[in-house]
Write a structure and sequence with these properties.
alpha/beta; binds guanosine-5'-triphosphate; binds magnesium ion
Length: 233
């Protein structure tokens, strides 16, 4: 599987994400009203009015599109697929003015040609490194296969650039309650050295598990500034 070549950049370390102040005041966003806005092939074509957005990332087939559908209660909003990794676009869903969820197609899927994969990774890296509106990342890992190489690359990059990361252990319905809990604790231990920067929860789109917890995290990230931020451009 190809590696994401993410490298921390000096400019990121002094970027806006470090100056965000958590006022402690958050509000609930209208997830059910999410609507598809645009599919951007590159950073330049992402919405310019974005004030805050959260990107859903993770390996192909981890359940990103399903999670967005579950979160919004709209089962056909983001496409889900049994033949993963085909669409290489940043898919934007608007929650309200300037606030978006972004479905980022999975990295590291072998059926896309090596050239296409390289091109897409470059676009993805540029987006992650330069997108000012990015308020945090939600990374999905299949609970049965956590910490694959590309997941570890993302965790290291988030740690180095101080980008917030919320991990969903997806397909929790595939394990018994006890086994899922054990897996959750193990993954939490695995990221404990990153402190508050990385959080972890169980999630199942099939069983609607973990939706309230996810909404609470996103409400915090996407509304904490009280509208004080400037749009992307
Ligand atoms: N059992 C179970 N299956 C799930 C769950 N979430 C997603 N799936 C299934 O996993 C497959 C992939 O889901 P997607 O949501 O399309 O995955 P994705 O991460 O968006 O994949 P890409 O778009 O290729 O990156 C589909 O067949 C889903 O039905 C879940 O919570 N439980
Ligand atoms: Mg998808």
């Amino acid at each position: 599987m190809p590696k994401l070549g993410l490298r921390p950049r000096g400019s990121l370390l002094s970027g806006r994400r470090h100056h965000r102040k958590d006022s402690g005041l958050t509000r609930s966003l209208p997830y059910q009203q999410a609507s598809y806005t645009v599919s951007a092939p590159s950073l330049e074509l992402c919405p310019r009015d974005a004030v805050a957005e959260v990107a859903f990332i993770g390996r192909s087939n981890a359940g990103k599109s399903s999670a967005i559908n579950t979160l919004t209660g709209q089962h056909k909003l983001a496409r889900t697929s049994k033949t993963p990794g085909r669409t290489q676009l940043l898919n934007y869903f608007r929650l309200e003015d300037g606030i978006y969820l972004v479905d980022v197609p999975g990295f590291g899927y072998a059926k896309v040609s090596a050239d296409l994969q390289r091109q897409w990774q470059q676009q993805l890296e540029r987006y992650l490194q330069k997108r000012k509106a990015l308020a945090g990342l939600v990374m999905l890992m299949d609970i049965r296969h956590p910490f694959m190489e590309s997941d570890q690359t993302m965790i290291a990059w988030c740690s180095q650039t101080r980008q917030r990361l919320h991990i969903l252990l997806t397909k929790a319905d595939k394990l018994s309650f006890g086994a899922a809990k054990t897996a959750l604790l193990a993954v939490r231990r695995g990221v404990a050295t990153h402190g508050d920067l990385i959080s972890v929860q169980l999630f199942s789109s099939l069983k609607n598990q973990g939706v309230d917890e996810l909404r609470a995290t996103l409400d915090g990230w996407l509304t904490e500034t009280g509208g004080a931020m400037e749009p992307e451009s």
